[in-house]
Each structure stands twice: as structure tokens, then as C-alpha cells.
UniProtKB/TrEMBL annotation, chain A:
PROSITE patterns: COX3. Keywords: Cell membrane, Membrane, Oxidoreductase, Transmembrane, Transmembrane helix. It holds the Pfam family COX3. It comes from Ancylobacter polymorphus. It is a multi-pass membrane protein. SUPFAM superfamilies: Cytochrome c oxidase subunit III-like. This is Cytochrome o ubiquinol oxidase subunit 3. Belongs to the cytochrome c oxidase subunit 3 family. One of its GO terms (molecular function) is oxidoreductase activity. The chain crosses the membrane at residues 27-51, 71-90, 102-119, 152-174, 186-207. It is an enzyme of class 1 (oxidoreductase).
TrEMBL record, chain B:
Gene3D superfamilies: Cytochrome c oxidase-like, subunit I domain (1.20.210.10). Residues 62-572 form the Cytochrome oxidase subunit I profile domain. It is a multi-pass membrane protein. It comes from Ancylobacter polymorphus. It holds the Pfam family COX1. This is Cytochrome o ubiquinol oxidase subunit 1. The chain crosses the membrane at residues 29-51, 72-95, 115-139, 151-175, 202-226, 238-268, 288-311, 323-345, 357-381, 393-415, 427-453, 465-487, 507-531, 623-640. InterPro entries: Cyt_c_oxase-like_su1_dom, Cyt_c_oxase-like_su1_sf, Cyt_C_Oxase_1, Cyt_c_Oxase_su1_BS. Its main location: membrane. Keywords: Cell membrane, Copper, Electron transport, Heme, Iron, Membrane, Metal-binding, Oxidoreductase, Respiratory chain, Transmembrane, Transmembrane helix, Transport. Its EC number is 1.10.3.-.
Length: 210, 709
């Protein structure tokens, strides 16, 4: 192993000096902590949903009556494939330092992510028009829209961030600062997968079964 | 012309002065007076800045600075300004309750409701939080031998978000009303059905801004402590204040998110008709109580832990002894931090969960008394056999030990659900938490100001006036709050603007007297600062070590240079600087100097704060164009900043060398002072370590150890 790999095997910086590695470690560690506190927010929303999807139905529909599993499954595929694509972007960055490759894969990631957001908005549209299931209907639906909506907002802000990063790749090239930002964006994007897996399992699968 | 598009829901009658003109009463006059003070204060500041020509220095040296020391000082200034407002509100409430037999008094119920809501909200979010954050900002990087925090710009953004929240609360004095729902803002009362209007929205957005700022602060400090310690500074060599900062930061990372979630849900209920906490349609306010206290209980430890850190530094330094039981103090701090997440339910024992649940949380609550007790014994034993100087800070410490224990005892009482059922929602509870927060947190911060002020500004505070303020604050606190225990047990409910039991009168009178003493204490404190600034020449202690300090922050000049340490220190023991002084290895010239990179000033943070404030104001008043524009601007600033490349500048080695060698030469040329002369003009900040005082004669000439190479 080279010196830099031995120092920080987990960091996809490759080909830079040890000092950049050390600086990178601090920045990435900080971002992990940020993600942790973001996950606390999601945990709280999950807990709220857990209580309200049982006790907050009121006169409104039950989970099984409004969820469309097929759509949720397709959304899952879109989001997971977008993460897969981001993985390729990071590999292009680490092993080839290839600007075009990075940009291409970022584009794929962004399109898949945008598809995810679009499908979710369509879900909302169907729920509101076909089932009358607005967030104002019941506590359960309030919690549902807040949980999935917060996730969708995260994905959307990730898309904006991705667009900014694409511009930065063009303007600055794959400089250490840009690489570090891409790595943080990747972490962010993968965390949203994890959260979505939770939503898919707990909200959709469990909701339709029970 | 549709004015609502432009001004949202603001009308002529929204302004506090309109109430006075249309419906004059003493209560309205007081509201208008407060509004006028806010407006005149702002105007006065503008005039002062203009006349003195301070706008440019304010912007260039302070607001745009990302230096952790300046950020810290700005936090503390913010805390003191907000403290002035909230303590006056407290005195007003005391006066109202004294005058309020059988519907008397001079405040309307609504005005009284706003007073206790703003008082609580300000004291927690905009006094205590900025105070501890400012202190941690200033001291922690110095104690771990770092040049700054890990993310200096983020640090400045946290400050500006907090400031935006504080400004929003000040604006509520003039435009519109504040919430009457207390600092915890329980729905459904704070829902749109029972609290229409802007009051609760002011609370929601001010608190949200503050809590986002605190989350970012916690993240920043935790990373700083994990990653930026100087060589040799292992975790168990860190000063205790740094340890408590670490624990508080971890709590901030985990505890602020539930608050943000709760305020967002409340906002969605109010703005968009959601049903999180409403009475019908599946809403459940019990979830709010859980979310709020899931934040709220760790919050009290977020506040008290840094104060514990201060007490540990103060008692060791003013006893000239190494802290007793360092390791046990560290573990006790960690225990408290972990346990703080396991007790939130004791804030609502009466909400209706099963007795077993209550019992478990009651026991968990009592267990917290154990690590806290460990700490108290450690502080006591630190004093045993020490060379104790009864300075202002030390007086506050001894007062803390005595009164905090009493407050802790009443806490253990309240932890018993059976007793809690009797006294909950009474003044007994009010007495209890003030008994913890005032002698613990607030006086801890005051002691910290006495202790570290010379570090930050290069001169000591006037000791006589400091003691005068202590002798008002300490008995003032006892008088103001101990009667409330009695009142609570007599059945006086909290947050009540009028009452009819004549037996209350003498106790309320005593409490009023206490409030007056506290105000006098604050006046002495302000006077102390003013007098000290005037006499700064005779109080000067630029050599950095006026108290015979123990940690690294005392080894550098006062005020420290922008880069803190000319060369990053190498640490081999706890109390690193004290050990170095004892061994005669302090104040050595380093072998070589290097260029230092420091972050450049930037307008990013103040701009984000400005737009965040405008965004929140727009939300409060439903001024949707302002909401959209300022939201876009916030992110435009962030994105624009990400394209900036020259964010750092280099301080050349020669500059660092010149400054540091001049400092070292001054230290060597100055005779040290013994602890007896600590409060005399002879104390320029060069201390003879207590353990070497016997041989002081030889050392006093300052012929200390220079490295020959």
C-alpha cells in the first residue's frame, strides 16, 4: 500500500499529499457528525409517524388504503440506482481523475434522483386526488407527509448541491476542495438511501401489511 | 392596491404604541415603554456608532471576523444585552405578583403572559445558551492548544443565526405581541385555534434559528476537540472545562434535533392546518411534550455542564491546587451526559402514563444526583489544604456549592412522582429550577467572566465592585426564590398574574426584595465593567497569567494574538502550563517559527444572519415575498461563498516571531507576583507559581530560563 492509502484507507482522495489527507479527515469527520444529527431528526420523525399511524387515523383513511407499493418499489429502485451511479462517479474521481467521467455519472445520478422526486410528487398527487388524503385529513397523514416530505426535500437539496458541484468540477477541475465536497455529497446521498430503506420498509411495507 | 401582499398581516394596530394611543392603561404604557426602550436603544447604538466612526471597525474587525475569540466575545455581549431585558421582565413580574391581591396589580393578564414567555425563552435560548457558547468558543481552543475551531466560518454562522433569533424577539417588543404560551409553548394552547395571531410564530422562528445555530455549534466543537488537540494533549490530559465542552457539544448534536422537529410540526399545524398537536383529527399534544422535553432535559445539562467546567477551573486555580479527583470528574460528566437522555419524562409525570413508567423515570432522575454529588465532593476536597483566595469568582463558587445542593435536594423531591403530583405547576417548581440555573449556570458564567476577562482583554476587572455585585446577587437570589418554595407548598400556581390568598403577601414581598437586590447586583456588574475599562492602565495584566493559571490559555499574551499560539505547544502532563512553570520550562523561545495560515474575514456569516432574520420576520407576518426572497438570498450567499478560493491568508513567520519574542522578553523582564499581591497593581500577569514562592527571591528578578542554542 502507498503511504496515503495506509494513512486513510477510507478516503477517496488518492494521489494527494499526506497533509491534504489530514485536513480531509477533519472535514469528513465533521460531516459524519452532521449526518448523525440529521439522522436524529429523522429518528424523531419516524417515532412520531410510528405513534400517529396507529393512533392518529381519526376519520381519515388507514395506511393500507392509500399506499401504492408498486410506485414505492420503483422509487426505491430509482434512488438506489442513483446511489450506484454516484459510486461510479467517485471511482472515476479516485482512479482516473477524469472530469468527464465524473460529470457523466453525476448527470445519471441527478436524473435518477430527479425521477425519484418526480415519482414521489406524483404519489402525493394521486393520494390527494384519488383518496382525498391530504396532510390536513388526519394526524397519521400529517406525519406521513412530514416524514416523506422531509426526505424528499433532502433529496431535492441534494440535487441542487449536485448541480452546483457539476459547475465547480467544470470551473475548478478536480481540485482537493472540489473532491472533498463531492465526497461529502456522496455521503449525504447514501445516507438518504438508508433513510429511504427505513421509509420503504416501515412506512410502506409495514403499512400495507398491517 | 392590496397592501397585504406587501406588508402581510402587519397593520397600524400591530405596533405596540398603537395600543397605548387607542386604549391607554398602565399595562399598555409599560408595553409602550419597553418598545420605546428597544427603539431608542437601537437608535442610540446607531448614533453612537456614527458619531464615534465605529461602523467600519465594527464591520471589519468584528461582524465579519471568523476568529473564535471574537465570535466568543460577541456571543457573550449578546447574552448580557438579552440578560438586561429578561431580568427587568423578571422584576416586573415580581412587582405585579406583589401588587396583585384580589385582582390588583398593574399588568393585564395577557401582558403578564407575554412577560413570562419572553423571560423564559430569552433566559434559556438567548442568555444561557449564548453565554456558554461564547465561553466555550473563547476558552476551549486555547485550552487544547489549537489555533481556531475546526470550521471557523460555520462558527460565525452559528453566532449570526443565534443573533437573528435574538433580534426577532427584540422586534416583537415593537411590532406585534409575543406568545403567551410560556417558554415551552405547549399546544393545543399554542395552536392556531387558541392562539391566533403572530405571538407563537415569533416564538417558533426565534427558537428555531437559535436551535439550528446550537446544533452547528455542537458539531463544530466536538470535531474541534476530537481533531485539533495539540501534540501530547491526550483526552485525559484535557482541562476539565474542555471535557465539559465536549460533553455539552455531544448533547447539542443529539438534543437540538427533537426541538427543531417539534417547532416545525407546531408551525405546520399553525400555518398549514396539519394535525400533529390539535385536539381533533388524530392530533396528539402528548407527542409535543415528549419531543420538547427530549430536547428540554438534555438542554439543562447543556447549560450546567460548561458551568461545572468553569467551577472546576475556578476552584483549582484559586486554591492553587491540582483538581481533586480529575478522573472521577470526567466520568461523572460523561454519566450525567448519558443519563440526561433518560429522564425527560419527569417533566410530565401528571400526563397520564402508567405508574411504572413514572417510577422508572423517577429513579433515573434520582440517579443523576449521584455523579453530581461526586463532583461536589471533588470540588470540596480540592479546597482542602489549598491556598484559597476569596476572590469574586471563588465567592460565587462557594455560594454555588451551598445553594446548588439545596436546589438538588428539591430536585430529588420532585423526582418522586407522588410528590410531583402535589407540587407540579406551582411556584415550588419555579423555585427549584431557578435554584439550579441561577447559582449553577448564571453565577458560573459570572465567575467565568471574572476569571477569563483578563485573558480576553488584557486587564483585570475591578475586584471591589465584583464583590459588591456578589453580595447583592447571592442574598438576592436566596430572597427572591426561597420564598417561592413556601408559596408553592401553600398552593400558589406558577404563571399566575393575580391571586386572592392574603397569606401569600409577606412571601411575595420578600421575593420582590430579592429581585431588587438582583437588579442591584447587575447594576454593580455593569459598573464594574465600566470602571475597569476606565482604569485599565492600573489593572493591566498583558503578560497573560494573572491568577497563576494551570491550563495552556494562560501561557500566551492577553489578549492573545489572532494565531493564539506562535508555535503549537507540546504537552506532557495535565495542568500543562502550571507544570512548565514549576519546572522552569515555561516562556521558552521556540527553536523555529513557521508561517501561519489564518482564515480571512468574510461577509458570508453576517449576510446569512441578516437574511435569516428577514426570512423569519416574513414568516411571522405572512409576508410571502420576503420569505421567498430572503430564502433564496441565504442560499445564494452560501453558493457564492463555495466559489471563493482565497479564503485564507498567511501570517509570515517573521511577524509571529517578532510578536512572540517581544512578549517573552516582557515576561522575562517583569518580576513575578505572589498570590498575596494578586489583586494589586503589581500583578501584570506574571505569576510566581505557588509552589515556588518560598524561593521567590531568586526568581522574582525574572531571570528565567532561556534556551541557549
Amino acid at each position: 500500500m502507498s503511504l496515503s492509502e495506509r494513512l486513510h484507507p477510507g478516503i477517496n482522495l488518492a494521489g494527494t499529499d499526506p497533509e491534504s489527507h489530514e485536513a480531509a479527515e477533519e472535514v469528513l469527520f465533521g460531516f459524519w457528525i452532521f449526518l448523525m444529527s440529521d439522522l436524529v431528526l429523522f429518528a424523531v420523525l419516524f417515532a412520531t409517524y410510528a405513534a400517529m399511524s396507529v393512533q392518529g387515523i381519526a376519520e381519515g383513511p388507514r395506511p393500507a388504503e392509500v399506499f401504492d407499493l408498486t410506485a414505492a418499489f420503483l422509487e426505491t429502485l430509482l434512488l438506489l440506482f442513483s446511489s450506484f451511479a454516484f459510486g461510479f462517479a467517485m471511482l472515476e474521481m479516485k482512479y482516473r481523475e477524469n472530469r468527464r467521467g465524473v460529470l457523466g455519472w453525476l448527470l445519471v445520478t441527478g436524473l435518477l434522483g430527479a425521477g425519484f422526486v418526480g415519482m414521489e410528487l406524483h404519489d402525493y398527487y394521486v393520494m390527494v386526488t384519488a383518496h382525498g388524503a391530504t396532510p390536513q385529513t388526519s394526524g397519521f397523514l400529517s406525519a406521513y407527509y412530514l416524514l416523506t416530505g422531509t426526505h424528499a426535500l433532502h433529496v431535492s437539496s441534494g440535487l441542487v448541491w449536485m448541480a452546483v458541484m457539476a459547475v465547480q468540477v467544470v470551473v475548478f477541475g478536480l481540485s482537493p476542495a472540489v473532491k472533498l465536497r463531492l465526497m461529502r455529497l456522496a455521503l449525504f446521498w447514501h445516507m438518504l438511501d438508508v433513510v429511504w430503506i427505513g421509509i420503504f420498509t416501515f412506512v410502506y411495507l409495514y403499512g400495507v401489511v398491517s | 392596491m392590496n397592501w397585504e401582499l406587501i406588508f402581510g398581516q402587519i397593520k397600524w394596530t400591530s405596533f405596540v404604541f398603537a395600543g397605548m394611543i387607542e386604549n391607554p392603561s398602565l399595562s399598555e404604557a409599560i408595553a409602550s415603554g419597553a418598545g420605546s426602550i428597544a427603539v431608542l436603544g437601537a437608535l442610540g447604538t446607531v448614533v453612537l456608532l456614527t458619531v464615534k466612526g465605529w461602523w467600519v471597525p465594527l464591520w471589519r474587525d468584528w461582524l465579519t471576523s471568523v476568529d473564535h475569540k471574537k465570535v466568543g466575545i460577541m456571543y457573550i455581549v449578546l447574552a448580557l444585552v438579552m440578560f438586561a431585558r429578561a431580568v427587568i421582565e423578571a422584576a416586573l413580574m415580581r412587582a405585579q405578583q406583589l401588587a396583585a391581591t384580589d385582582g390588583g396589580g398593574f399588568l393585564s393578564a395577557d401582558h403578564f403572559g407575554q412577560l413570562f414567555s419572553t423571560h423564559g425563552t430569552i433566559m434559556i435560548f438567548f442568555v444561557a445558551m449564548p453565554f456558554i457558547t461564547g465561553l466555550m468558543n473563547y476558552v476551549m481552543p486555547l485550552q487544547i492548544g489549537a489555533r481556531d475551531v475546526s470550521f471557523p466560518l460555520l462558527n460565525a454562522i452559528s453566532l449570526m443565526l443565534t443573533m437573528a433569533g435574538a433580534v426577532l424577539i427584540m422586534v416583537s417588543l415593537v411590532v406585534g405581541q409575543f406568545s403567551t404560551g410560556g417558554w415551552s409553548a405547549y399546544p393545543p394552547f399554542t395552536g392556531i385555534e387558541f392562539s391566533p395571531g403572530e405571538g407563537v410564530d415569533y416564538w417558533i422562528w426565534a427558537v428555531s434559528l437559535g436551535s439550528i445555530g446550537s446544533t452547528l455549534t455542537g458539531l463544530n466543537f466536538a470535531v474541534t476537540i476530537y481533531k485539533k488537540r495539540c501534540p501530547g494533549m491526550s483526552l485525559f490530559r484535557m482541562p476539565l472545562f474542555t471535557w465539559t465542552t465536549l460533553c455539552t457539544s455531544i448533547l447539542m448534536i443529539f438534543a437540538m434535533a427533537p426541538l427543531t422537529a417539534a417547532t416545525i410540526m407546531l408551525a405546520l399545524d399553525r400555518y398549514a392546518g396539519f394535525h400533529f398537536f390539535t385536539n381533533g383529527d388524530g392530533g396528539n399534544m402528548m407527542n409535543y411534550a415528549n419531543l420538547f422535553w427530549l430536547f428540554g432535559h438534555p438542554e439543562v445539562y447543556i447549560l450546567i455542564l460548561p458551568a461545572f467546567g468553569v467551577w472546576s477551573e475556578v476552584v483549582a486555580t484559586y486554591s492553587s491546587k491540582r483538581i481533586y479527583g480529575y478522573t472521577s470528574l470526567v466520568y461523572a460528566t460523561m454519566c450525567i451526559a448519558v443519563l440526561s437522555f433518560a429522564v425527560w419524562l419527569h417533566h410530565f409525570f401528571t400526563m397520564g402514563q402508567s405508574a411504572n413508567v413514572n417510577a422508572i423515570f423517577g429513579i433515573a432522575t434520582m440517579i443523576i444526583g449521584v455523579p453530581t454529588g461526586v463532583k461536589v465532593y471533588d470540588w470540596l476536597l480540592t479546597m482542602v489544604g489549598g491556598r484559597i483566595r476569596l476572590t469574586t469568582a471563588m465567592l460565587f463558587h462557594i455560594n454555588f456549592l451551598l445553594t446548588f445542593i439545596l436546589g438538588g435536594m428539591t430536585g430529588v423531591l420532585l423526582a418522586n412522582p407522588g410528590i410531583d403530583f402535589q407540587v407540579h405547576n406551582t411556584l415550588f417548581l419555579v423555585a427549584h429550577f431557578h435554584n439550579m440555573i441561577i447559582p449553577g449556570v448564571l453565577f458560573g458564567m459570572f465567575a467565568a467572566v471574572q476569571f477569563w476577562f483578563p485573558k480576553a482583554f488584557g486587564f483585570r476587572l475591578h475586584e471591589g465592585l465584583g464583590r459588591a455585585s456578589f453580595w447583592c446577587f447571592a442574598p438576592g437570589f436566596l430572597l427572591a426564590f426561597f420564598p417561592l418554595y413556601w408559596l408553592g407548598m401553600m398552593g400558589a400556581t406558577r404563571r399566575t398574574f393575580t391571586w386572592s390568598n392574603p397569606d401569600y403577601l409577606p412571601w411575595f414581598a420578600l421575593a420582590m426584595l430579592g429581585a431588587a437586590l438582583i437588579l442591584a447586583g447587575f447594576a454593580f456588574m455593569v459598573m464594574q465593567i465600566v470602571v475597569s475599562v476606565r482604569r485599565r492602565a492600573e489593572l493591566a495584566a498583558p503578560l497573560g497569567d494573572p491568577w497563576d493559571g494551570r491550563a495552556l490559555e494562560w501561557s500566551i499574551p492577553s489578549p492573545p494574538p489572532a494565531w493564539n499560539f506562535a508555535v503549537l505547544p507540546q504537552v506532557t502532563a495535565r495542568d500543562a502550563f502550571y507544570e512548565a512553570k514549576k519546572d522552569g520550562t515555561a516562556y521558552r523561545s521556540p527553536a523555529a517559527y513557521e508561517d501561519i495560515e489564518v482564515p480571512r474575514n468574510t461577509a458570508t456569516a453576517p449576510l446569512i444572519g441578516l437574511f435569516a432574520c428577514a426570512w423569519a420576520f416574513g414568516l411571522v407576518w405572512h409576508i410571502w415575498w420576503l420569505v421567498i426572497v430572503s430564502f433564496v438570498l441565504i442560499w445564494a450567499v452560501v453558493i457564492a461563498r463555495s466559489f471563493a478560493t482565497h479564503t485564507e491568508e498567511i501570517v509570515p513567520a517573521a511577524t509571529v516571531k517578532a510578536a512572540n519574542e517581544a512578549f517573552l522578553a516582557a515576561v522575562r523582564a517583569t518580576p513575578g507576583v505572589t498570590r498575596d499581591q494578586e489583586m494589586t497593581a503589581a500583578n501584570r500577569g506574571r505569576a510566581i507559581p505557588e509552589s515556588l514562592e518560598a524561593s521567590a527571591g531568586a526568581l522574582a528578578a525574572g531571570a528565567a530560563v532561556e534556551v541557549t542554542r
